[in-house]
Write a structure and sequence with these properties.
Blueprint lengths: L2 H15 L2 H21 L5 H24 L3 H16 L7 H14 L8 H12 L5 H12 L1
Helix pairs in contact: 1-2, 2-3, 2-4, 3-4, 5-6, 5-7, 6-7
GO molecular function, one term: carbon-nitrogen ligase activity, with glutamine as amido-N-donor
Protein name: GatB Yqey family protein
InterPro entries: Asn/Gln_tRNA_amidoTrase-B-like, GatB_Yqey_C_2, YqeY/Aim41, YqeY/Aim41_N
Length: 147
């Protein structure tokens, strides 16, 4: 089932269940995907859909952080629920061991020797882990393994 089909099915189910948070979140995702489709002028491929989902996820993570700073627990809870909905459409995240293995393989692929090859490694690594691991965590692992 494609992502758009899955979103439509979930939107219908959320309407039946009267789940306002899920319904609103699914509608926002659908809208973001549609806007991206219009912007690019063609149907989105899986990579482009993942980019949109990552953007939506990051927005909610940043919102949670800001709401927590402002001591708005009601908004933090609602946004965490939205984040859970967004994450349900994303691929399964990599475990620490899997990420370590991919980083080590990538370092060998690009024949990295030291810290000066950090950018080269990250450029090759990011497409492999896109949407499945945090970029900050990956860059920390690359730095550790290059040292």
């Amino acid at each position: 089932m494609s992502l758009s089909d899955e979103i439509m099915a979930d939107m219908k189910q959320a309407m039946k269940d009267r789940d306002k948070i899920k319904l609103n979140t699914v509608r926002m995702i659908k809208s973001a995907l549609m806007n991206e489709k219009i912007k690019l002028g063609h149907d989105l491929n899986a990579d482009e859909e993942l980019t949109v989902l990552n953007r939506e996820k990051k927005q909610r993570e940043e919102s949670i952080e800001e709401f927590a700073k402002g001591k708005r627990d009601d908004l933090v809870d609602a946004t965490k629920k939205e984040l859970t909905v967004v994450e349900s459409y994303m691929p399964k995240p990599l475990s620490k061991d899997e990420l370590n293995k991919i980083v080590a393989e990538t370092i060998q692929e690009v024949d990295a020797k030291g810290k000066s090859d950090f950018g080269k490694v990250m450029k090759a690594l990011m497409p492999k882990i896109k949407g499945r691991a945090d970029g900050k965590e990956a860059s920390a692992l690359v730095r550790n393994q290059l040292n």
